[in-house]
Specification:
Structural class: mainly alpha
CATH architecture of the largest domain: Orthogonal Bundle
Oligomer: single chain
Strand content: under 5%
Radius of gyration: 19 Å
Number of strands: 0
Number of domains: 2
Number of helices: 9
Helix content: over 70%
Length: 196
């Protein structure tokens, strides 16, 4: 057994105990889980929604679901983190499906818009198009892409978090990338320039 396996196993055992305690109503155990995972849960939602307030709301909802269902959860070898991120990502995906957000303002800017602001806005527009393309992917493909590319989880971790085989995950990722290429075919040059 490698050191990584021992560490992972120890973390999972520790988190399993914290989840059991949370399921029994132990608020201090729940607080430890929040402190450990709130950052990664919030980031996973923010990558999908690009909205800080919504990311905060949905992260809180994910932890509320943990509080409510802790007594019936089984913790895998990677602890509770993958479950929390999956719940949060699913909540974000549901939010994307149910709303088409438009930013409307009645206020006219009082200052002259500088040239670098135009560049910033173009970057925001490009990010919004990427988010929109992600929103058009089927839920499983979107979750696989976000967890693998944005969360930096390994394929094995993503497969476990999503309850699929590694082969099924590779297929999801391949179809998701192909889908994004099709959805963003008119934007690919801009995306390549943005990555450089």
């Amino acid at each position: 057994m490698t050191t990584g396996q021992v560490t992972t196993g120890h973390m999972a055992d520790d988190e399993a105990q914290l989840v059991v305690a949370t399921g029994a109503g132990d608020a201090s155990a729940f607080r430890v889980l929040i402190d450990r995972h709130v950052g990664s849960v919030r980031r996973s939602v923010l990558r999908l929604l690009r909205d800080e307030a919504e990311a905060e709301d949905l992260a809180q909802e994910a932890f509320l679901r943990l509080w409510r269902s802790a007594a019936s959860l089984e913790i895998g070898p990677y602890g509770i983190g993958p479950w929390l991120r999956r719940v949060a990502s699913n909540l974000a995906i549901d939010r994307l499906r149910s709303t088409r957000r438009l930013d409307v303002t009645d206020e006219v800017p009082e200052e002259i818009v500088e040239p670098e602001q135009a560049t910033f806005l173009e970057g925001q527009d490009l990010a919004a198009r990427m988010q929109e393309a992600l929103a058009h992917l089927p839920e499983g493909q979107r979750a696989a892409l976000v967890l693998f590319h944005y969360e930096g989880m390994s394929q094995r971790e993503v497969a476990k978090a999503m309850n699929v085989s590694e082969e099924a995950l590779e297929s999801l990722l391949s179809r998701a990338r192909r889908g994004l290429r099709g959805l963003l075919k008119d934007d690919w040059r801009e995306l390549l320039l943005a990555d450089n």
